[in-house]
Amino acid sequence: MLLPISFIFLSAVAIPSLAHPIGGSLDLLDNRALGTVGRNVSVVQNITHICGTRGPSDVLRQAHADFREQSRHGKKKRQASSPIVVQTYVHFVSTTDQVKYYPSSVRTAMVTNQVQISPHPFPLPSPTLFTDKANNPQVSILTNLYRPAGISFKLISTSWSVNDGWATDAESTPMKQSLRRGNYEALNIYFQTNLSSAPYTYSSSSALLGYCTLPTTITYPGPDGPVEYPTLDYATDGCNVLASSMPKAPFPAYGYNLGKTAVHEVGHWFGLLHTFQDNTCATDDPGDYCDDTPQESQSTTGCPRGKDSCPGSSGLDPVSNYMDYSTDAW
Question: Which residues on neighbouring strands pair with residue 321, listed in sequence order?
Fold first, then answer.
């Protein structure tokens, strides 16, 4: 894995060259015959919508370009200048018909196994950083993977809600207005049992692994310096992640059930772009604005080796990068 470059944009930190897995599908089951369970299994085995994060704004692109130029002249280091601890709030949201599959014991197992199946060469963070033992591992995997860039995550609180409109994401804005905690520097992650894109039916054609907001301007000039807008003005900030992407989920999203989807989406929250940004091999295209990311014109499916969507450019596609769509096998 390449060591990431970091930069601070507003309240977020961007770390290029992380590695993210997602992609692939298995055989479709006959959910008409198998009922609710069959429908759940069918959906998570045939997810085609990987990431719903929108493209970067011109302001974010310019911030990336400026940072890249500064890093080329040695004005920016590949790590945060000082340790960054992200205040983190975790929200678990279920539909009414999924509640029975997600009792407290199952939710605990899902997050407890998050760290056990993710080997890393970095030591685990001190348990004193966390306030809820059930969610420690979820935050731990984020800390372990972002630690090379000087970033860790401190879990402040968790919540559990049952609401069909929230769990499918049909009512995402009301959900976040109700659940979001902290200021703009705080990370809120919503693990939803039925996360979908429109029309929010949680079917094989609409199920979604995740999406997240990119950094944006949330301050205005004040007499004593920049002033942050009220929380309600940026209530939609945060990451939405399909609960089935977590380990030990009752209906695992096969191929992406080792907990790496959250890592990918949080990368967007920090300002990272997809490794295949702009989907082109053009030599003058900045891609993800990271010099150590080979040019890539197509997202990755599965876990291929030797993929090279831009044979005219140096290096193979960064299939082990967290900001691509490879499976969690990496």
Answer: none
